[in-house]
Amino acid sequence: MADFIHEESEGDLQDQIEEVEALSSIYGDEWCVIDEASRIFCIKISDDLEEPKLTACLQIILPPDYPSAAPPIYQMNAAWLRGFERAKLASSLEDLYVEHAGESILYLWVEKIREFLVEKSRSSETVDPSEKVNMTAEEEVDDDDDDEEEDVPDFRTLKLHADDAHLFTDHADDEEEAPPIKHGNTITDRRSTFQPHLAPVVTPRQVKTFLGKLYENKKIASATHNIYAYRIYCEDKNSFLQDCEDDGETAAGGRMLHLLQILDVRNVAVVVSRWYGGILLGPDRFKHINNCARNILVEEGYAASADEAAKSGAKTKRPKSKKTK
Description:
By secondary structure, this protein is an alpha+beta fold. The chain has helices at residues 2-27, 83-99, 106-125, 137-149, 204-214, 218-221, 252-263, 284-299, 306-311; strands spanning 31-35, 40-46, 55-61, 73-77, 182-183, 187-189, 192-200, 225-234, 239-245, 268-275.
């Protein structure tokens, strides 16, 4: 048992190192290391990089068992973020953690906060600045309390709702059969090998089940990177539930998700495994990852091939027809 815990903590530390490297590469000067030994970091988030109107500072402590068993501990500093809005944002971060339990979550958190800032900035532009919103005495007291708390570190630990606990039990995924998994052809370049995998999915739970089943394959689980992206169409809301993961290959997940969006695919998850061969490939690695993803989507009928798209006279990158799984 002690050996297992030790191995798991080493795995968590490696995941943290790779995640921090990726975030540093993505966000540049916005990302700041406060105390590397204590795993304390900070990132400045704004609604607009060139002309920011709203900014927030997210300070993070990474526990030893993050991401496998614990969420990051965080403090949100923003003078404008009070009362209901603070609670709403905290709840959305909690929901993201629950949905992606056991995975690196910081990139999703940062972008969720940025999305929140953009929406608030846009909504404030539509309000007459001369109008003052009436508040009850209780709301005014709550805001005063928030002002006082801004000066005191207020690190939060996510408290999961009881009805979300089933997401973390060992038998949770056994209740739902894993979707059928397809494996695509490999691409090899300078000793690095790339291979795609695909499964039809209609819920985030199925994505998690698909990944869990896929990683039972020791060769795939040992890949240097397992980059994935998925898109699920929510018919009742006429919208898409979608997400991606770089798994240490900075920006690769976002590029793959963009490919899925361009191809307008739905109800599918794609993983591309990369086994690093010791020679840096530069931008070519992104080309291989997306080519792998595109190839298996075409092979499984989720997207039209280039020839089919040309024959259909498509003038955009979005195919008008695709196979429904």
